[in-house]
Design goal:
With about 70 residues, this protein is mainly alpha-helical. The protein contains two helices and no strands.
Amino acid sequence: MNNEPVAWTQNTFCKYCHRIPSQCGCTHPVKELTDEEINTEMLAYLNSKTMGLEEFARSILKKAQEK
């Protein structure tokens, strides 16, 4: 029998309580963007010749994470 690992897991910890998410009792704050912030990202997307829909979604998520 081969005892080599077949899968790996990565424990990521909640940045608020520093526990494994399944043990976390925290309610994480909602990060909302204003209409102006969304419109700014949308205009950048519409004016871009190279930005795809995935990049647009990532830019919205990144903007929310920065808050």
